[in-house]
Amino acid sequence: MNISPVHYIALPLLAAFLIPLLSKLHKELARIVPGLVFLYFLVISVVLMQRLETQPMISEVIAGWSAPWGINLVFTPFSGFLVSLMSFIGFLVWVYSYHFKKIDYMPAQKYFILLMMLVTGSIGIVLTGDIFNLFVFLEIVAISAYSLTAFYPGRDGAEAAFKYLLVGSFASALILLAIVILYTQTGTLNMADLAVKMHEVPHYLKVIIFVLFLVGFGIEAEMFPLNGWAPDAYSQAPGPIGAVFAGIVVKGGIYALVRVVYTIFDLSGVGTILIALGLVTMIIAELAALRQDNLKRMLAYSSIGQMGVVLIAFGIGTDTAIFAALFLMLNHALIKSMLFFSASYLLYNSTTKTIKELTGMAKHLPFVSFIFALGAFAIVGLPPFSGFWSKLYFLMAAADAQMVLLIITVLSVSVIEIIYYFRVIGKIYSKDETSELEPKKPTINSVLVMTVLGALIIIIGVYPDLVTDWIHHASDALVNKSNYIQNVLTENLPR
Amino acid sequence: MDFDFQNIVTISVYGSAIALILIGIYAVLIKKHLIKIVIGMSLVDAGLHLLFVAIGYINNGTAPIFSPGYEDAATNMVDPVPQALVLTAIVIGFAVTAVALSLVIRLYKHHGTVRIDEIKSLKW
User: Fold this and answer.
1) C-beta atoms of B106 and A153 within 8 A
2) pLDDT tens digits, residue range A44-56?
3) pTM given for the model
4) For residue B55, what are the domain limits?
5) Is B28's Cβ below 8 Å from some Cβ in A?
6) B81–A150 CB contact, under 8 Å
7) Is B77 part of any domain?
8) For residue A267, what are the CA distances in angstroms to A147, A217, A264, A271, A273?
9) What's the CATH code of the domain at B83?
10) How far is B48 from chain A (nearest CA, A)?
11) CA-to-CA distance for A219 and A306, rounded, in angstroms?
12) How many structural domains is chain B composed of?
């Protein structure tokens, strides 16, 4: 069989329709089929990444209409990097939540279908070369995310989901409006073609379109002040979905923003706007995280703060900065999902989900507590772990750009980060009293997943060279805009 | 400027599209009733769709289909792309509205009210 990027989208959509039928044959199939899909994602990622060694990018034409007219999927080293990361996290989430709702299978079936759609939509955002198609995938992500946020009827999920939906539909209206204006001005929807024709657009319209896109995608990328949905959604959705939001969905939003900024637009001063927004996002989010007594909300705010750092790095825009941004994204996906995985076991039987209740939890759940501590050390950027390298590269990029004030701010915000993470670790390892919570023994699957993530974080921390080549290719592909345009528009004649 | 029929139609289509968007935004921002907020969201969507279709429209244009007898159709064809996009956008809007309404039902069952100012277990 000829493996192509289309499989990333076609296969899970087919599987999502088949799962309700297959689970009539055997209930276990509703759990197994999504796992097979994720496993296949990993196989395609490996095969396609190897194919990229010999050619600059894979551009797949859909339905025989070549690039500016039809929809195409573009697999560059940059999108390949994100797609592989998303597939990997998706697979881990599946392994982790394999026993989700073991007794009644109807909720489990819905959960797995929605999980698959969430991952597929995010991968679609990254792969597509067509701006309207990107909007469609964004909506696939959004609708599955709303449903998953409201998954538990007993909690305040519906309220969080409704807030998310209000903000999200506002975002999609803005993005649609931006696409409409863009189409009237250029007459094309293909992103490479748009980049070529962008100079025909009057400057004031360019600014309007850019602001519409920035606000629209900024909501998905958790940019301040558009991230009010995030803490509620993270804390109300089922535990593993927090990892999906942090590891996969946000990356899709950031990708869309970056693709628009770096490929379509050539406005000057965009970098400064991104740096400013990133700084405000980071500072406000980390201060909010410091104030939280709910662990999941704290993790959500920390995640927003990390995205702020990524935005700053993309704003600086030098080669080292983009490299640092991608490294930060990789680390955030690995570490934050590990934190969410372990936090959902720590909080398993807690009704209030507060940090206070975790006092002395390490005695009941030594392994999970250890993993949480490891994740906390890694995310604040302590040396033996992978988070250290991405922060170091980020600071080096900022130093190259001679932004001393920026370095000072980021470092002082890191201190805040250390304070609130270590406060939680201190509570967990406190010897004074023991938690009254009934501990929930982690399943073998989740132990396996957390071990794999923990090992990866340490391995990347000790041998960062394992991933730097990969990230270098990805950042080169993002920076090299003319290469992208040329490859999409000329080298894929219809077969 | 001559006020012929086509001009009036064009102006009223664009005008109603913008009016729909504004009414929708007003409903989402001001109204406290959840169902009215959902209606406002659909109105914004509908306005955008109307705007998009209006942009692709050409006076006295033909359907974008090549058929015997209309070989010169390409000169004044209505742009088919906005229509295709709007069809997609309508389906998406339908799905979002359905999810929103089901969330309203869930909220009503949980809180016993559909007024947004009476539901505040989560803070912003």
Assistant:
1) yes
2) 888 888 888 787 7
3) 0.91
4) 5-118
5) yes
6) no
7) yes
8) 37, 17, 9, 9, 11
9) 1.10.287.3510
10) 7
11) 15
12) 1
